[in-house]
Design brief:
98 residues, mainly alpha
Length: 98
């Protein structure tokens, strides 16, 4: 039987120090590569290991990385639209999430 997972929460907006924020620090190619080939990174302003002002006590996915993923996966036709709702629908349709 295939194991399914509860999808992690995602930041509603980019945090003030998001490396994916336009006009912010340049995003290293490694961050982009990881977001598109490995996993969604956790926002560094959330969870017990937060770096600056803690936005959430729970770990949440990085909004900037998720926006990048949504745009790229929709452009490739993997997602029908670049939205969180489509991300969740696709994960459920593939049997990856509840």
């Amino acid at each position: 039987m295939k194991k399914t997972y509860k999808l992690a929460g995602v930041m509603k907006k980019m945090c003030a120090t998001c490396p994916f924020r336009e006009g912010g620090l340049p995003v290293e190619d490694l961050l982009v590569e990881r977001a598109l080939t490995q996993a969604t990174p956790i926002c560094h302003s959330t969870g017990p290991g937060h770096l600056k002002k803690q936005v959430s006590k729970k770990n949440l996915a990085c909004r900037g990385a998720r926006d990048l993923q949504l745009k790229v996966f929709a452009a490739f036709g993997f997602l029908d639209a670049p939205t969180d709702e489509e991300w969740s629908r696709k994960a459920r349709s593939l049997g990856l999430a509840r």
